[in-house]
Structures are given as C-alpha cells and as structure tokens.
C-alpha cells in the first residue's frame, strides 16, 4: 500500500484528527468538555483510523491514550459510562479491533466481548 499515493485522503484525515484530538482547541471553539462523543468517541475513532491509514507512529500514541480512556469507560454490561442512556454511536468495535491488531492488547478483545 506504500506505493499508492493516498495523500489525497490521508492529509485531510490528519487535519481532521488533529482537530478532534485537540481538547484545548475544541473547548475554544465552544465544544463542551462534558460531551462524551466530542471528547472521547470521535477522537478515539479518528486517531485509530489515522494510524491505520498512515502508519504514522504519533497517531499510534494518541490512539493508545484514547483507547485506554474509552476502555475505562465501558462498564461490565458493555455500556459507555459517560452516556446516561444507550447510544449506538458509543460502540466502537472497529477501533477496538485496530487496537488489538496494532498492539495485541487482549483488553481490547475483552472490551469487545462486553459491548
């Protein structure tokens, strides 16, 4: 895949990922820090997608941090604890799969089984 010029997609993806993973910038732009989708789900998904598409290690570090935060907020019943009620957008099976594939982290599998 390295022989294919995919910058037409990965460069905008990196810009988006830089934006949604920057808590200070999001707060300055008026996004509430108590919104789980804005501060956990979207950054988690974006960071993992960006590492998958670019191979850039900086995104692996961000994705790992965000995955840890996400996994800490999944209760034993598979519910995302930062939401008061079930929201299908809080399920991130592909992100957890990426975590497992990139790192071999068995906690990602355990979290997948819960959700």
Task: Give a topology summary.
Blueprint: H1 7-20, H2 23-28, H3 36-54, H4 57-72, H5 93-103, H6 106-114
Helix pairs in contact: 1-3, 3-4, 3-5, 4-5, 5-6
What can you tell me about this protein's structure?
With 115 residues, the chain is an all-alpha fold. It has one domain (7-114). The protein is built from 6 helices and no strands. The protein has helices at residues 7-20, 23-28, 36-54, 57-72, 93-103, 106-114. It is globular and about 45 Å long. The model has no long low-confidence stretch (mean pLDDT 80).
Compact description:
The chain has 115 residues and is mainly alpha-helical.
Main features:
115 residues, mainly alpha, 6 helices, 0% strand
Structural class: mainly alpha
Shape: globular
Low-confidence region ranges: none
Number of helical runs?
A: 6
Q: Radius of gyration, Cα only, in angstroms?
A: 14 Å
The biggest sheet amounts to: none
Q: What distance lies between the first and last C-alpha atoms, to the nearest angstrom?
A: 32 Å
Helix-strand pattern, N to C? HHHHHH
Q: Strand content of the residues, in percent?
A: under 5%
How many independent structural domains? 1
